Amino acid sequence: MTDLEERVALVTGSSSGLGFAAARALAARGARIALNSRGGDKLVRAKRELTDSGAEVIAVTGDVRDADDLEELVSEVEEKLGPIDVLVANGGGPTVKPAIELDESDWQAAIPLAFLFVPRLCRLVLPGMRRRGWGRIVAINSVSSRQPIPRLALSNALRPAVLGYLKTLSQEVAGDGVTVNAVLPGYTLTERQAELAEGIALHTGRDAEEILATQGSDAPIGRMAEPREVGEVIAFLCSPAASYVTGQAVTVDGGYVKALM
Length: 261
Fold this sequence. Notes:
Number of strands: 7
Number of helices: 8
Radius of gyration: 18 Å
Largest sheet: 7 strands, parallel
Strand content: 5-15%
Shape: globular
């Protein structure tokens, strides 16, 4: 399927994990891909893997926490690939801490990483999308925005804020041909999931491997997600087929969240 052929897709935080899975799924649909991370060997490998698969790919370093970096990122992508049609906004996960242990420095570090980069990127790419009458914005969020996860107080607080912003934005730009959605992954086999398990183990004294095994079994489907399973949902939301889907937070969690909505 090449329904995104010639579309330019910027995927932040895409050197590995869910960001890379999204980039790979978009590349398979024909999109021209701009990868982004703070750099390093993982970004080099990610670019090589997609290039070897036949995709047109560039890799741009930059920190999503830095507003100036984001402006330079968007400018470089548009200079090298053309106007951005698809934005997949993916940032890092904040520190693992219970609410009663959070201090001012934790909030100051977490807000740009888990929340602010999303409206900052949207502000940069939306004017062009609206002028052209076509655009797709998808934020990779978390099930913690629907069902708080113990010891992830920062994520539990900031992920819902992202959804509130995206819902509002989706109503403002729907008439311009731009859709705005979020994907809420559950427990997924990524490096970040291993880091979270280590953080929980540090606070609880439990074994990290035991925690990972429990997380997999917590979903009714009986296992963790593979990154590609989340990436395919993201790619669908970015496709022409999802032209009437906007303002939604799509949970991809194997049935983990118990809420009706």
